[in-house]
Amino acid sequence: MGLLLQWRHMGVRLGGEEGSPPIVSGLNLDLHHGECVALTGPSGSGKTTACLAPFGLKNGRMEMTGVACFAGRPAGNQPTQSGAERVAFVLQEPANNFAPHLNIISQITDLKRIINKEEILEWCAELGLDDGWRLLRQYPHQCSGGELQRLALVAALAQEPSLLVADEPTAALDAASRDLWCRAVRRRCERGLAVLLVTHDPSVIAAVAHRQIPVGARPMPPANLPREPVELPEPTRDVLLAVQLQATGSVQLPGGREVLTLAPGQSLTVTGPSGVGKSSLLRLVLGLPSPWKGQVQWRGKGLRVWRDASYARPSGVMGAVLQDARGGLNPHRTALDGVSAGFQRLGNSWRVSRHRAAEELAALGVPAECWPRAPSELSVGQAQRVALAQALACEPALLVLDEPTSAQDLGHRQRVVDRLLLAQRQQGTALLVATHDPELVAALGGPTLPLVPAGPAPTV
What is the DSSP track for 99-164? Predict the structure, then answer.
């Protein structure tokens, strides 16, 4: 098959940062029709930047070096097509694949004017979206992260691309949905589709990639976390959080279990397939609008949604890292400033807060050169860890975490787990976590709340 994408000594640096290392450098690649190449490397190594920058999808401060050609022409700033060849993208953050003000089918129609509805529904079913027509008529905020990731692939395929650039396209998927995604992409590769894949998941690489290219593998500095267990005084078993859920028509609560409780230092993990309502349950707990119905009590008192003007959010008692971690960071603050603000709210001086923020970021493996950067200049994995550092800075009694390791490589995932366990031991922080990651479930221990779709399970 013919050569489609070529890089020669391609690199990207962040302009205006004297002496800072390049984000990525010296990349060489030949990608042919029908071939899948995976870019691998630790979180923050520049994989996303490498696959998007040649097509003009980069931060304004970034400068590209070397040569990048698509279909025999300089890739330049033509992100959608070069002659008869087209590029389609599945971006890492699911919501970024769609405009928020239009429903999904309208946006697919904009990408391809002549729509074969039956074909689109077949693609949805192929990816495990059996209720495809309902999902297609929904707006992005009405879909789960896993549903949006699969719908993004449907929208990409509707463009009839020669090259698919897929950045962590399975991070929000459960194992069954991930396998369906891999089968669908493998079939397209057999028909000539070229795929440039970014992923931390070795099972996805094994399923679809023909070869790998490592990007920016840097040695990871030590975490500087205490290794000896920190003993708490005799733990209190007072109920910190109690949630009375009302079963919905689309979700079965296991064993009729309608009440979940958390005491200081405990963890509860919410599991289940993509789209079953895990993120919506966390939103209910945080007092955000949610399709779940129920009552939430905090230390014996009822919580109402934040939008209720008569309710004031209790300061410092809850921290959260939602699935769109970057969206929880102030876009006008640097990583260091955002974390420092949490320590200042505890009464620390500016100087002490900066020092403690630097220690927290270093413990989570956020490189020092990233501390003065805005959230838009961080990788998704880095933004996820900065958001966790920001939440931990307030010393919360409860941490609510939605897929906190989805964008992390193995080394950084372990750092996140170690830091969460330390917060439990040191401060008695309770953890409420939604995840597809069985290793995270095992590491945190504690009970799980498995959410199951009502009705028969979909066949795989």
Answer: -TTS-HHHHHHHH-SS--HHHHHHHHHHTT-TTHHHHHTS-GGGS-HHHHHHHHHHHHHTT--SEE
Map residue 26 onto helix, strand or coil. Answer: strand
pLDDT over threshold 80, residue 219? no
Asked if residues 258 and 293 have their Cβ atoms less than 8 Å apart, the reply is: no
Most confident of 243-247, 270-274, 279-283, 358-362: 358-362
pTM for this predicted structure = 0.81
CATH code of 241-453, in short, is 3.40.50.300
The CATH class of 3-214 is alpha beta
CA distance 192 to 113: 23
Identify whether the C-beta of residue 62 lies closer than 8 Å to the C-beta of residue 49.
yes
Domains 3-214 and 241-453 share a fold: yes
What are 367-395's pLDDT values in tens digits? Answer: 998 999 999 889 999 999 999 999 999 89
Burial class (CB in 10 A: 0-12, 13-18, 19+), 29: middle
Order of strands across the sheet that contains 36-40: 81-82, 85-90, 163-167, 194-198, 36-40, 211-214
Quick check: 263 and 446 in contact, CB under 8 A? no
Between these two residues, 193 and 376, which has the higher pLDDT value? 193
Write down the residue that tokens 């023909």 correspond to.
210
Q: Where are the beta strands (DSSP E) in 299-444?
A: 301-302, 318-321, 398-402, 430-434
pLDDT at 237 over 80: no
User: Which two tokens mark 342?
Assistant: 């949490």
Distance CA 148, CA 144 (A): 6
Confidence of residue 217 (pLDDT cuts 50, 70, 90): low
